[in-house]
C-alpha cells in the first residue's frame, strides 16, 4: 500500500470541513480521507508534527564533542550534535546557500559540516565558517547564514526537539512525570539496542494501534499473558491495587505509582503531552520477557520487582514502557503519506555489560516480536481503510478510549485551521 493517487480536487477547505464533520460523529473510526489525502498529510507535517515535541535520541549517542546523529522526519533531516564547546544542538540539515543536505552519514564525529555542493563549511555549532569566493559579493555577512537552529530540551538524558521556534515550553509538562521516570536514571542508562521498523502505513494507523490494547488479546498472545493492560479495568482491579500497595516498598522509589494525565486534549499546550501510570503484570511476572523473569540488572534507583510496569508518554508521538530491569522507548515518525518509522530503543542500566549482565536477544525478544505482530495488523488495517468500501465503525468505549482521545485532538487541530 505504498501508492495512493492524488485527489486533484482536494483542498485545505475540504480537509477542514471533513475534520469538523468527523468531530460531530465522536467515538467512530475516522474517514479513509484522512489517510489518503495528500493535502491532509502536508498539513499534518506543518501544523502537527513540526509543532510537537519529539524524542530525537539520547545524550550517550553524542558523548564527545563533535559527535552527531541525524534524525529524519518526513522528508526532512535534523542534525543532533555536541558542538566543539560541549553544547548539545539541533540544526536543520540544509545548506544556507542553495539548500543541499550538508551531512549524509547517519552518525559520526565531525569538526565541521562541509556542504558537498559548493563547499560552504559550517562549525559544529552551525556557524558558517567558510563560503568560498563569497567575499567578492558586497555586503555578504557569513553570520547571516548559520545553519538554522531547532528548539531542543534535554530531559533525564533524552533529547527532545521541536521544529517550531515558537513552540510552548516542554520542561514543565515533563516535570510532572520526572519523579516516576527518575527511578530508572535514564541519564546514566545505556542503549542496549535500537531498531527502526519501517511500516507501510500512514503514521496515524501506527499510532492508533499503539494507543489501544483491544487488539492485544487477539494479536499479541505472548504479551497478553504478561500484561494486565489487555483486560478491562474492573477485571484486573485487584491485581493493580495489590501492585500499587506494594510498589513503593518493593522498588524503594517514593511516588513510583503516582499517575499523571496530561495527554492530548489534557495537555496544557499543543504538542507537549506528558503522562504516566503504573499497571500490573500478571502474578509472578517481573519483567517484559519471554518467561516474565528479569533480563537485565535493575535500572537506576530501583531496588526490586513489584510486578508493575511504568507507562509513559512524552510528547504526542513518544512513549515508554518501563520494567524494573529495562525500558523500551517507542516513537512514531511519518516518512511519507504511507510510510512510518516506528523506532524502538531498549535501555538498560548504564553499568550493565552485554554478554555478562544481559544478552540482546532475550532483552529484545518480547517487543521485537510484538512489533512485528503490530506491523502485520497495521498493514492489513492500511489495506482495508484505503478501500472505497470501508465504512468506519465504533470504538470500544474503554479499550479504545485513549485512541479516541488522540483522534479527537487530531481532528480539533485540523478543524481549527483557517483554509488558505
Ligand atoms: S548548496 Fe551548499 S554550498 Fe551550495
Ligand atoms: Fe500492538
**Cα radius of gyration in angstroms:** 22 Å
CATH superfamily of the largest domain: Naphthalene 1,2-dioxygenase Alpha Subunit, Chain A, domain 1
Question: Which strand order spans the largest sheet, edge to edge or round the barrel?
Answer: 11-17-16-15-14-13-12
Q: Quick check: average pLDDT?
A: 96
Helical content stands at 25-40%
- Domain count: 2
Largest sheet: 7 strands, antiparallel
Shape, principal axes of CA atoms: globular
End-to-end separation in angstroms reads: 30 Å
Please describe what this structure looks like.
The protein is α+β, with helices and mostly antiparallel strands and 420 residues long. The chain has 2 domains: 59-153, 3-layer Sandwich (Rieske Iron-sulfur Protein); 184-414, Alpha-Beta Complex (Naphthalene 1,2-dioxygenase Alpha Subunit, Chain A, domain 1), CATH 3.90.380.10. 27% of the residues lie in helices and 23% in strands. The strands form 4 sheets. Strands 11-17-16-15-14-13-12 form a 7-stranded antiparallel sheet. A 4-stranded antiparallel sheet has the order 4-3-2-5, with no helix packed on it. It has a 3-stranded antiparallel sheet with strand order 1-10-9, with no helix packed on it. A hairpin with a 4-residue loop joins strand 15 (318-322) and strand 16 (327-336). The longest helix has 26 residues, at 360-385. The relative contact order is 0.17. FE2/S2 (inorganic) cluster binds at residues 95, 97-100, 115, 117-120.
Write the layout of secondary structure elements.
Elements: H1 12-23, H2 33-36, H3 38-47, E1 54-58, E2 67-73, E3 76-82, E4 88-92, E5 107-109, E6 112-114, E7 121-123, E8 128-130, E9 151-155, E10 158-162, H4 171-175, H5 178-182, E11 190-199, H6 203-210, H7 216-219, H8 221-226, H9 233-251, E12 260-262, E13 274-280, E14 308-314, E15 318-322, E16 327-336, E17 339-348, H10 360-385, H11 401-415
Antiparallel strand pairs: 1-10, 2-3, 2-5, 3-4, 6-7, 7-8, 9-10, 11-17, 12-13, 13-14, 14-15, 15-16, 16-17
Bound molecules: FE2/S2 (inorganic) cluster (FES) and fe (ii) ion.
